[in-house]
Design brief:
By secondary structure, the protein is mainly α. It has a domain at 1-154: Farnesyl Diphosphate Synthase (Orthogonal Bundle), CATH 1.10.600. The protein has 16 helices and 2 strands. The protein has helices at residues 3-30, 39-52, 58-68, 78-99, 111-118, 123-146, 152-179, 187-213, 222-246, 249-252, 258-262, 267-275, 278-287, 295-307, 310-330, 338-353, and strands spanning 104-105, 108-109. It has a two-stranded antiparallel sheet with strand order 1-2. It is globular. Keywords: Magnesium, Metal-binding, Transferase. Belongs to the FPP/GGPP synthase family.
Length: 356
């Protein structure tokens, strides 16, 4: 990424973080909360906390750059679309931590564990309130679009995009759970999970929303947008799976080895199992699904993966799919603005480099 592009990215993040804070500052006044309720304001506060605690705002950047494919002028509706994609992300994170029993999110306690701390004697209440918090964030993600100042037709199209993205994400979560009940999920299964769980709401939907806000009709380019998003989604999922074993906990904001402890057949876990036999394989299989697996065991598995070339293999896989995505974006030059096309061409490879 050039310095000019990185400055644009930093400005998107800075501007959006201010926008997000302002949104949550006024949210309670706009929600019809019964005066007797103590739990509802607490729920909003927890959503505020996990939403503003961090995150790369990758979706916000993709959204704004998608609009720049069409025009460099200010575009009505982009702020609402940015809020929508990040609120949908918040919803997914909150639900994800219930599914995965995740204690940490973005360097702090997950919403689920915050509720567990509040209700130590009522675990079902903690689960229920966490699910409801995620549901509320989903509804909020659609509401901000309906309240947008964009033209009515654009608002309706945006709601349709986000509703479809949410449905695809839920199906991706279901397939993700189902995958781990398969003895040996093949590459097609892993790609399907990456497409539904990541690509469609993190890449495809933000690009569609940005194009809609800028007056373009993304349905005219449906196949190539989906192809690009799927390839980036696969590369991004591989990157996340790679970092879960080979990354640094301090940089990730959460412990490594979660996929091993949860028994997930991720890209990295599958590659690891395919590369080892004998005592090494028994070590990995014994740890797979063991929630009490120690950091020392995870470190030993990491060393096995590095010694057997799995880390390098995952890097090569990521780069291959990133290069394919870049090639798709390069084909947009005859249609859209060069600087934004260059961004989407460089983005997949830049993301892979960040895994190192």
């Amino acid at each position: 990424m050039t310095e000019q592009v990185m400055q644009r990215v930093a400005e998107y993040e800075r501007r959006f973080n201010t926008l997000f804070e302002e949104y949550f500052d006024t949210l309670s006044a706009r929600l019809d909360v019964p005066s007797l309720s103590r739990f509802t304001p607490d729920c909003v506060e927890l959503l505020w906390d996990v939403s503003l605690r961090g995150g790369k705002r990758f979706r916000v950047v993709a959204l704004n750059e998608a609009a720049r494919l069409v025009t460099a002028d200010p575009v009505e509706g982009l702020d609402a679309a940015a809020l929508s994609v990040e609120l949908l992300q918040t919803s997914g994170l909150v639900h994800d931590d219930v599914i995965d029993d995740g204690p940490v999110r973005r360097g702090g306690p997950s919403t689920y564990y915050a509720y567990r701390e509040r209700f130590p004697e009522h675990p079902h209440t903690a689960v229920g309130l966490t699910v409801l918090a995620g549901d509320l964030a989903l509804v909020m993600s659609l509401q901000v679009l309906l309240e947008s100042k964009a033209p009515m037709g654009v608002r309706q199209a945006m709601v349709e995009v986000q509703t479809r993205a949410a449905a695809d994400t839920f199906m991706g979560q279901i397939i993700d759970v189902e995958r781990d009940f398969m003895t040996t999920p093949d590459e097609d299964v892993l790609h399907c999970v990456a497409d539904y769980k990541t690509a469609r709401y993190s890449i495809l939907a933000p690009m569609q929303l940005g194009l809609l806000a800028a007056g373009e009709q993304p349905s005219l380019f449906e196949e190539e947008l989906r192809d690009y998003a799927r390839l980036v989604g696969i590369s991004e999922t591989m990157r996340d799976d790679y970092l879960d074993l080979f990354g640094e906990a301090a940089r990730l904001g959460k412990p490594t080895g979660a996929d091993i402890r949860d028994g997930k057949h991720s890209y990295t876990v599958n590659a690891l199992l395919a590369a080892i036999t004998g005592p090494e394989r028994r070590t990995v299989e014994a740890a797979l699904g063991d929630s009490s697996c120690t950091p020392e065991t995870i470190a030993a598995i990491r060393e096995i993966g590095e010694r057997r070339g799995v880390a390098d293999q995952m890097q090569a896989y990521m780069r291959r799919y990133a290069q394919q995505a870049s090639a798709v974006a390069a084909g947009w030059r005859s249609r859209w603005r060069e600087e934004a096309v260059a961004f989407f061409e460089q983005l997949p490879l830049w993301s892979v480099e960040r895994a190192r």
